[in-house]
Amino acid sequence: MISTLHYITQETDKQTHAQAAEAACRAGADWVQLRVKNKPYEVWKALALQTKSICRHYGSTFILNDNPALAAEVGADGVHLGKLEMAPAEARKLLGPTKIIGGTANTFEDVKRLLEQGVDYVGLGPYRFTTTKDNLSPILGLQGYTAILEQCSAAGITIPIVAIGGITAADVPLLLPTGIHGIAVSSAITLAANRAAAISEIKQNLQPLPQHNL
Ligand SMILES: Cc1ncc(COP(=O)(O)OP(=O)(O)O)c(N)n1
Ligand SMILES: Cc1ncsc1CCOP(=O)(O)O
Ligand SMILES: [Mg+2]
Description:
GO terms for molecular function: magnesium ion binding; thiamine-phosphate diphosphorylase activity. The protein is α/β, with parallel strands linked by helices. The chain contains 9 helices and 8 strands.
């Protein structure tokens, strides 16, 4: 089951990636993606092992960003792959049928390609500008999500699509009706004064609206 809220780790001057993961799990995150950039392999691996044990302790799913070989080595639950990383079909051969593989899409064509490559979910973005990621693809905005999710629906594509990029709790009521499965969030949780309150508000807003009889 793909969570509707993916927490993406972020290092700050106060905490390591693993400490950020721990704080998020303690605050209610049930899905953590360890997103380490520009660190030596041994440091990356140590952070992955720490984050895995934190996720096991809290019963959260542990996804490693970018590196399928390291995901296999540390026993992560899965991997998230962008356009610059190993192709999902190749990662599937390495990781086997039970591991979770996510892929990044910026367009409807990307979603179709990822589906053919056998991913379990799609991270579609960016929703808006964010400083968390360098070299952002063009901003999709609400219009972009509406158009791409409409194309998915018309094509009978039902793979879980997770929105990403500068997303806050306040965006969720606007994004949810486009048909997204959930959201991936880093700053709005990592930098929140109260992470538990931030996660609780996001989860509340992710609840599907009740169906009203006309
Ligand atoms: C859930 C989710 N969606 C998209 C991304 C972005 O992946 P990528 O395009 O490879 O960029 P980096 O995160 O590696 O900088 C993601 N990480 N997670
Ligand atoms: C990894 C990634 N891919 C597209 S935007 C983004 C950053 C998400 O972090 P934030 O929620 O802080 O914008
Ligand atoms: Mg990547």
